[in-house]
Amino acid sequence: MGTQDELEAMSTRIEVVRVFTDAAGRLGNELGIARAGDVADADRQALAARVGYSETVVVDDPVDETARMRIFTPAVELPFAGHPTVGAAWWFAENGVPIRVLDVPAGPVAVELTDGLTWIRARGEWAPDFTFHQLEGIDELAAMNPDDFPEGSHYLWAWTDDKRGAMRSRMFAPAMGIAEDEATGAGAVALTALLRRGLIITQGKGSQLFTEWDSDGWVRLGGRVVADSVIYI
Fold first, then answer.
1. Which one-letter DSSP state was computed for residue 63?
2. CA distance 152 to 165
3. pTM for this predicted structure
């Protein structure tokens, strides 16, 4: 058996953050972050499958406050996703290299950190193809079983306060290799674009997402991020 240092040298370092936590820093969706220089192109999808989080990202070093990033679920690569862009934007700032843009395959994602929240700016059409299900109330939402959704990507939601734009939600995406997602930023972006209004979303066990709708078709998505752990794959 090798030493811990030797094992780490033979592995890929994955820094883990939790994105869209509640106000106390609890819950949120885990995001794995790998540096591009540590990962060969051919290994990226396999790495994400081994990590097992709903998304793992591979980031390049920033140039002129812009960083290229690729996003992988355990099963597929995505052109855009919400919790990876919010999480990576926070991670860059936390590591002392704040950026202004994340360059993902869907397009340039502007980022901003303000008042304890990390915000990104995206378009609804960048999101994966979700099937949206509006339910009558949170009891019906809580009773839903991921096993009843064997294919596709499904975003289920119910108002808790329509006037405030507050809702609860869940997301099942077997098409992406995700039985249930704890916090789905792209779903929040797409639903905000569909409803054309800002939203206060509590998803899964209690993760919190915030959105703002711009009349020109752009959506701002924000939330809290905290550091979680470092793993070696």
1. B
2. 26
3. 0.94
Q: Is 51 helix (H, G, I), strand (E, B) or coil?
A: helix
CA–CA dist 146, 116 (Å, integer): 33
- CATH number assigned to the domain with residue range 4-122+223-232, chosen from the 4 options 3.10.310.10, 3.40.1080.10, 3.30.460.10, 3.40.190.10: 3.10.310.10
Backbone angles phi, psi at 21, to 5 degrees: -70, 170
Please, what is the angle between helix 185-195 and helix 82-94, to 10°?
120
Q: State the residue for tokens 């899964």.
A: 204
Query: Which residues are paired to 44 by β-bridges?
Result: none
Nearest-5° Cα angle at 159, 153 to 160:
130
Amino acid letter, residue 20: F
The secondary structure of 153-205 as a DSSP string is -EEEEEEEETTTTEEEEEEEEGGGTEEEES--HHHHHHHHHHHTS--EEEETT
Q: What is the pLDDT of residues 130-164, one digit of tens each?
A: 999 999 999 999 999 999 999 999 999 999 999 99
Length reported for the chain: 233
CA 87 to chain CA mean position, Å: 7
Question: Rounded to the nearest 5 degrees, what angle is found at the Cα of 128, between the Cα atoms of 123 and 131?
Answer: 110
CATH code of the region 126-221: 3.10.310.10
Kindly state the tokens that stand for 129: 């193809």
| Residue 98 near residue 199 (C-beta atoms within 8 A) | no
Tokens (6 digits) for 67? 């960083």
Distance, in Å, from the CA atom of 53 to the CA atom of 155, rounded to the nearest integer, reads: 18
